[in-house]
Amino acid sequence: MNNTSVKPESLLLCRGRVMHARLRPFVHRFVYRVFCLRLRLDQPDELARSTSWLFGVEHARPVSFWARDHGARDGSDLLQWLAGVLDASGVHFERGAVWLQCFPRVFGYVFNPVSFWLVHDKEGTLRAMLAEVNNTFGQRHQYLLTAANLEPIQASTKLSCQKVFHVSPFCAVQGRYQFELDERAGQPRLAIDYFDSEQEQMPLLRTAIVVQPQPLSTRALLVALLGMPMMTFGVMLRIHLQAFKLWRRGAKYRAKPPLPADEVTHNFKV
Length: 270
Fold this sequence. Notes:
- By secondary structure, the chain is α+β, with helices and mostly antiparallel strands.
- It has a domain at 11-151 and 213-248.
- It has helices at residues 44-48, 78-88, 218-227, 231-248, and strands at residues 11-22, 28-40, 55-57, 63-65, 95-102, 105-106, 114-121, 126-134, 140-145, 159-162, 176-182, 189-195, 205-215, 264-266.
- An eleven-stranded mixed β-sheet has the order 10-11-12-13-1-2-5-7-8-9-14.
- A hairpin with a 5-residue loop joins β1 (11-22) and β2 (28-40).
């Protein structure tokens, strides 16, 4: 890769901010800078050519992407895993571009609270989104999100799904998530609102990541890395720091419940 970009449609560097806000019974809000990747998984040959001294796909580098951090977690083909998830959930359409937005490994370490798979049809229309969620206990769950009748997912589309997976010890496993994706203005915004009760008009939690994508080059990645050299360590550190602050403010602690029976929850059951 040297100091040139790979094709912009295959690998993007995204710098931006994560916002997290708890709105009840007290307000607790924080924002921090991040950088992440957007990888077009249906163009593996392009991704394979992106290795440099700084970045590698399936190569140990200061910043790297490994298939074993996603999907079946065994390094197997990610597209085959995704096809199995979609087929098992009865989600059938001719697939085109498949993007994965996630944190990379930085100096060998990564923790992704949530990674987003964006699955388009052959015409380039977004038809499905998979939220791959990890908790700090080493567990994972996938929320498969589609619009009714597999209609296009647009900026105005709200995708709701029942919460079935334990993430925060200060939130019960109940209620629902509402996902929104707005890719207008060249600044993709992925937002998740958590409603713990249908009787509440205001969500308990609001989370969003807003990024500015650009073709990944060695120069751009080096600038991002020098600005945030401990970025992925910082994600885990902030999770525990904010949990301590919530505990100090009186948030109720809940023990870890059993895992859901299924590893994938589809918002439209078939």
